[in-house]
Design goal:
Number of helices: 5
Strand content: under 5%
Distance between the termini: 53 Å
Structural class: mainly alpha
Largest sheet: none
């Protein structure tokens, strides 16, 4: 049981240090406006790269997945609640599959 706590502590250090070091090292450094704009888009790009492949294969039919994704996109565009966006995507898939399968 002792080794488990040591393992958890080491994992905490390993995940904390890479997040803490850039904040400490670049604390006084100011980025030029171009790099600030560029870095602001990284979370969106990374999230899209992680979600998009799984989203296309989630239903087994890429066309119904695109229908659900389109429904979710339209709801997100109009800034609906996140729960409504998810439900809209699910219902988009359900409607597509009931009409065309």
């Amino acid at each position: 049981m002792n080794s488990l706590w040591v393992l958890v502590a080491l994992m905490a250090v390993v995940t904390y240090v890479p997040r803490m070091l850039p904040m400490v090292m670049f604390r006084r450094f100011t980025f030029p406006p171009f790099w600030k704009r560029f870095l602001r888009f990284i979370p969106y790009a990374a999230l899209s790269a992680l979600i998009f492949p799984g989203f296309l294969t989630s239903t087994g039919n890429p066309v119904s997945a695109l229908a659900g994704g389109l429904a979710a996109f339209v709801l997100a565009w109009y800034r609906f609640n996140l729960m409504l966006i998810v439900l809209g995507g699910i219902f988009g898939v359900m409607i597509w599959q009931s009409l065309y399968n």
